[in-house]
Design a protein that fits this description.
The protein has seven helices and eight strands. By secondary structure, the chain is α+β, with helices and mostly antiparallel strands. The strands form two sheets. Strands 1-8-7-6 form a four-stranded antiparallel beta sheet. A four-stranded antiparallel beta sheet has the order 2-3-4-5, with no helix packed on it. Strand 3 and strand 4 form a beta hairpin. The radius of gyration is 72 Å and the shape is rod-shaped.
């Protein structure tokens, strides 16, 4: 539109120039001045309008930027407000929870104190009852301890008495251990016990010797030991690892004193020894009424195996018949001498 005006202005100028040539130079000056002024005004108006438009655009951009900043600030403010609200809510919830927890702790402390008081009273009662029971139990224990001490003293005294009796009985029964046939003959001459010699070979069969039966199961010549099975009153007894010259005592229901078994020789699968038995059995020491005068006959008969065993042992040892005969005579003489006083020997042979 401004260009169109400029063209009209130029045409008017040309027309004015043309007319000036026709009307004179003075008349054509003022319209040119007016036109130039108008052009200057139009240019100024155009420049001003353009500058105003630029300012308007700049202000619009600034407004848009300010609006965006304001919106962003509002969003940040809202977010900050929400966070503050959350923090305040959390603090309030924490305060409420702390208050509730404090109240619970107070209640728990009060309940604990109450329970502690109740527990203390109950434990005090139980402790008092326990102390009473402890005192009573201690009194009973002290009384029982006194009884135990008295019983121990009695046991010690009884043990010493029994040991003394056993020692005296063993001394009376043992005397000495015969290590050969000659010593056995010397023991036999004492006339206190009956002696039965035996020679056993390794076998599962039992061999009758005196009042019992014997069976050799093992003979250890390296360590001088042996294992033996005994048949006493229909009961089987086993003796293991018995040393040479070690006495084995066996109690029998028919004998007032224990039987003594001694082995004085050990060879390969063979042993030699003797059995020492009381002169009289219990039936002979305590005969029925009216038979006291005949008590010497069984004693003499029971002593016969001693001489027979002595002579057999002498023959097995390779000795002459004369010592065996003298042994038999000595053996038969001693039982008769002992049988003459059965009532006097009976108390001494009680176990």
């Amino acid at each position: 539109m401004n260009d169109y005006r400029e063209e009209e202005t130029e045409e008017n100028n040309e027309q004015s120039e043309g007319s000036g040539t026709l009307g004179g130079s003075r008349a054509s000056i003022w319209p040119g001045v007016v036109i130039v002024a108008l052009i200057l005004v139009a240019g100024l108006a155009i420049v001003y309008a353009h500058s105003q438009k630029s300012e308007i655009n700049t202000m619009a951009a600034r407004d848009a930027s300010l609006n965006a900043s304001v919106a962003q600030l509002q969003n940040q403010l809202q977010s900050t407000t929400a966070k503050l609200n959350d923090i305040v809510a959390q603090q309030q919830a924490a305060a409420l929870q702390a208050a509730a927890q404090a109240a619970q702790e107070q209640q728990a402390k009060a309940a604990a104190a109450k329970r502690s008081a109740h527990t203390y009273a109950r434990r005090r009662h139980v402790l008092t009852a326990s102390e009473k029971r402890y005192d009573a139990l201690k009194a009973r224990v002290d009384a029982q301890q006194k009884e135990l001490d008295q019983a121990n003293q009695s046991i010690v005294q009884t043990r010493s008495d029994l040991q003394a009796n056993l020692d005296s009985t063993a001394a009376g029964l043992n005397g000495s251990i015969a290590k050969n046939h000659a010593e056995l003959v010397a023991l036999e001459k004492r006339g206190q016990r009956s002696y039965f010699e035996f020679d056993l070979s390794r076998s599962k069969e039992f061999s009758r010797t005196g009042p019992i039966s014997l069976s050799l199961r093992h003979a250890d010549t390296k360590h001088d030991r042996y294992n033996m099975m005994l048949l006493v009153d229909d009961n089987r007894l086993e003796k293991k690892n018995v040393d040479l010259y070690e006495p084995v005592w066996i109690s029998s229901s028919d004998e007032p004193q224990p039987l003594e078994i001694v082995v004085n020789k050990i060879s390969r699968n063979h042993i030699h020894g003797y059995i020492s038995a009381p002169k009289y059995s219990i039936a002979e020491l305590n005969p029925p009424a009216g038979q006291a005068g005949t008590a010497s006959a069984p004693a003499t008969a029971g002593a016969q195996p001693v001489s027979a065993a002595g002579s057999a042992a002498s023959d097995a040892a390779g000795s002459s018949s004369a010592p065996a005969g003298s042994t038999a005579a000595a053996g038969s003489a001693q039982p008769n001498q002992s049988a003459a006083q059965p009532s006097q020997r009976a108390p001494a042979t009680q176990p």
